[in-house]
Amino acid sequence: MPIVVNRLQVAFGWQDMHLHRFAIRGREYGVHQDGGVFFDTDAHQALIGRLKLRRLERFTYEYEFGDGGVHDLRIEAALPIDPKRVYPVCIAGRRAAPPEDCGGPKAFMVKRSGYAVIGGANPRAS
Fold this sequence. Notes:
The chain is of the alpha+beta class.
């Protein structure tokens, strides 16, 4: 799942500085680091296509352990790659993405008006 991690990091504007894991069908996929959490399944070895996820099936991605940054994901569709398109592509979403080290969802919501919308020129006004 390294490609999925990369796409999420780019989409959110993060730098991949924190531990992270996927929870898919009751199984956790992550990357073990010395002194950190141990995972039964190495996310670097797992390929999302081999999991045979159904259309609209949900799974979670947790980033920045301890901050409560759990993101609900789902597969909308598996489409052929268009060589004329720049990837990744965000097809929907609201508000700015939570920046790295923002303190988690509650802190982000309190300060959200001060964050810029990804791709936008200026922070939004309060």
